[in-house]
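User: These chains co-purify. Model them together.
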Amino acid sequence: MKINQVMDIAIKAGKILLTKGSEIYRVEDTIRRICGYYEVEAECFVLPTGIFITVIGKEGEPISYVKRITERTVDLSCIEKVNSFSRNLQKNTMSYEDAIKILDNIEKDKGYRFGLRLLVAGVTALVYTLLFRGTVKDSIAAFFISMLIYISKEKISRAGIFRFFEYFASGLIAASISVVVVKLFPYLNVYRIIISSIMILLPGVATTNALKDALRGDIVSSQFGIAEAAFIVVSVSAGVAIILSFGVGWIS
Amino acid sequence: MREIILAFIASICPGIMYNVTRRNLFWVGLSGMFGWITYNSMIEVTGNVVFSSFLGAIIVGLYSESVARFRKAPTTVFSIPGIFPLVPGIAIYNSTQYIAENNLLEAATTGIQAIACAAAIASGILLTSAVFRFLKKWG
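Assistant: Joint model of the two components:
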């Protein structure tokens, strides 16, 4: 197989991992391993915003490749699939066409339907309200508010505005609807409803990945992850705080 | 018992949001359940939220590392939804509310509590992950 084709497979696998919210060390490991299986010696450097690979060609000439990553979502099933793809590659190396086909299929897989994810967003809020010792009425309110946040967050993210604005707007919407709902039904508890409905916004993935990267000594990427998590929490809190500043006085 | 079932669902839900494959969802639920049981029973025994979060995270970490080997999937698939019930959402919210009410002293107290909880969860996950990595290299 040509060196270009090996790099193509490696870059594609790396790109899927990085855009679907994998740790940085896993991306580097996978790229290095895939190149290794095809007996190509590669040096790679991955940042949360891009992949850089350099390979020494047959006549000693360096070949490099830069892939810029702009979108980042979370899809743990893609990471799992690329992981097992790379494990299969170790057992028997496949042809270029087969490998690209498998990776294309992984990338295309949309996962659970939007309707189901929307429902689950609601159920998450419902369950967390009950877990935080709220009443059943609180949990039903949280269920609908959380679904609303999820829809608006999807809409904003599709419009492609500044990413942290997404979280700020979600916090804003969550708090304002909760305040209005509590004004209408005064027996509800505003604080339990807001906490549970913003639960789906908390940056669990960014934090965990940052830690794992720190453990492998990749301080640059771990700083990125921690900063990302802090920004998300601050954005959501800012949205909530703005509404609460005058909302609490209004409902009591 | 009711809370245990809730904790089970409470980590399956983030699992679906993060697109965990169907065959692993049950194991993801167990991860959050064990973490929550540890966290809750430690709070009843010691009354220390930060310490309880730490122990809860250690259990989630141990569980995820071992199940990941047996299910042949990355550890994060089990650990990310698993720590969800432990996340200090209430402390973060309280801190925000105190800032909105201009009660900065209380805001600082709860804010520090939230940061300490997050750090405790982080070090719990980090510790188990480091131990497993060490064992893998060593044996």
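Residues 2-138 of chain B form one domain.
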